[in-house]
Amino acid sequence: MKFKSKILAAGVAVAFISTAAVAGFKQPAPVDVDLVNRFAQGDMVSAQQAKDDVTFIGCGVRKIATGAGVVSTGFCQAGDADEEQFTCFTQDPDLLAATASTADFSFITFAWNEDGECTRIGFSTQSFYLTDKMVK
């Protein structure tokens, strides 16, 4: 009987290990651009793996040397499957600093005002934005 118990315990352990290797909460966040309410959001993995060739999302910073010093301009841009697109710009130091939080599989959210200036930039880097294709 002890031998059968050990086999059963080993089988349960193997089943648990193989289940754990593929388990995990996943929450893709497809890109959505809302031109009426002036915000965009989505995760970079969903954007990159979209079935169309118009979906994208991201933020960046450009630093330009001028005679008066260095000018930093940040931007966030997104386009969704409905072909709604927008790019906002900022020179706000806090929003520029926020762009440093991005990672390869970040969820990105940003908003803009009537003049096209970024008013909010946010990132969330979570394991559930990864896909099975990324996990080896």
From TrEMBL:
It comes from the Bacteria. Residues 1-23 form the signal peptide. This is Uncharacterized protein. Keywords: Signal. It comes from Hyphococcus aureus.
